[in-house]
Amino acid sequence: QAKREKPENIPDLEKLAQEKFLEMESKNSDSDLQRNEKYMYFKDQLKEMKKQYNGNETIEQIDEDIAVTRSQMNFICPITQMTMKRPVRNKVCGHIYEEDAILEMIQTQKQKKKKVRCPKMGCSHVDVKGSDLVPDEALKRVIDSQNKQ
To answer: Could you tell me the CATH number of the domain that includes residue 140?
Structure first.
C-alpha cells in the first residue's frame, strides 16, 4: 500500500502509535498496579532490602508485612488448599488454581456430563473449561522465589 499511495496520503504511523500509547497509558490506574504480580514482587524485594539496611520496624513496615501476607494467600490453590506449583489462570473469571487439580476436576465432571463451577468461593462462573486455562508464569516465578527463601 505504501508503494501505491502518494507519500502525502500515507498516515503518520509514529504519531498514531504515540496517540494509541497515550490513550492506553491514561486507562492505567494505581489499583491496576496493586494487582500486578510483578509490581508486588518488586515492591516486596525493595522492602526486604530496606529491612536489611534499616533493621528496625516502623508502623509502615508492619502494614507492608500485612499486605505481603495477604498476597501470599494467593499462592494457595482453592481446590487443594496447598501452595501451588504450576498455577493456571482462568481467562473467564481470572481465578487461579493448581493445574493438575483443576484439570482432574474438569475430567471427573466431564465423565458425569456435568459442568465445572469455579472452585473459588463466591465466584459465579459455572462452566470452567480446560481451554479457558492459561499458565500464570509471573505467579509461578513469585512462588518459586518465595520457596527458595
So the answer is: 3.30.40.10
pLDDT band at residue 135, thresholds of 50, 70 and 90? very high
Q: What is the pLDDT of residues 23-54, one digit of tens each?
A: 877 777 666 667 777 777 888 888 777 766 66
Contact indicator for 90, 96 with CB cutoff of 8 Å: yes
What is the domain extent for residue 95? 87-147
Residue 74, domain member (yes or no): no
Rounded CA-CA distance 89/133 in Å is 5
Angle between helices 137-148 and 37-54 (to 10 degrees): 20
Strand partners, 96: 89
Whether 129 is in a domain gets the answer yes
The number of domains in the chain is 1
Residues of the chain by 3-state class (helix, strand, coil), percent to 5: 60, 10, 35
Asked if residue 91 is part of any domain, the answer here is: yes
48 lies in some domain:
no
Indicate the burial class of 55 (C-beta count within 10 angstroms; 0-12, 13-18, 19 or more).
exposed
Angle made by CA atoms 35, 144, 121, in degrees to the nearest 5: 50
